[in-house]
Amino acid sequence: MSVALNHRITGEGPPLILLHGLFGSLDNLGGIARRLEDQWQIHALDERNHGASPHTDTMDYPAMADDVIAYMDAQGLQKASFLGHSMGGKVAMQVALKAPERVEKLIVADIAPVDYHARHDAIIEGLTGIHLAEVRSRQDADRLLSDFVETPGVRQFLLKNLERIPAGQQKEGGPVFRWRLNLSVIDACYGKLTLAPEGEGPFEGPVLFLKGADSAYIQDKHRARIEQLFPAATLRIIQDTGHWLHAEKADTFAALCRRFLTSGQ
User: Fold this and answer.
1) Which residue spans within 64-213 are E strands per DSSP?
2) 53 is catalytic
3) 120 is catalytic
4) Disulfide check for 81: which of 95, 105, 144, 239 has CB 3.0–4.6 Å away?
């Protein structure tokens, strides 16, 4: 069953739906939204179990695609272009494969339509291992998470999901913070999130894959599957960037998106 996704709509023009990656929220692509909202109506979504969207007991790409299609129906969007990063890219591909008539153009940022080995075990172990009753500040949480996640920038990104409980809802001696993420379900369903989007395909419409030059998420061995499912796909590589290419080279990323979205219009 689909859920009603939290969202933010900005700008005017043809609709462009933005989908964030695992452990993220609609704010993750905010810099790109601000760069494109002069020409497009941006629909930034929190996916299920993330941000301010509902928590559910299930989480896989068919269900997440259904959430997006239900959102389009609720907003009266018969068709839209999509930009998805990482997990959000797989959700966007799932929409395109399941309901190609709803997708105008598709941008997939640093992910391929393939199965992946588990890459987030340490992160999940670190997040689920934090006892919130012991956390009295973000510094406390950062210190606890540092045993599992070495890079400060990654910890900062993850801890954006930690929110202070309003004073009126706190209980004496209880936790001060809570997770916006549905960590238990993400942990339980993580195996499904490593899988490829489902669908016989192909999606015949225009597709742009954007790869960070220093990232290993899109590899030469993935090209055959990409071409099979998305025969009109093109690939662009952004130099000196990793998996977070939309943040590391936001101007370049947005310019490539703009060029692709306006081509043929």
Assistant:
1) 80-85, 103-109, 162-164, 177-179, 207-212
2) no
3) no
4) 105
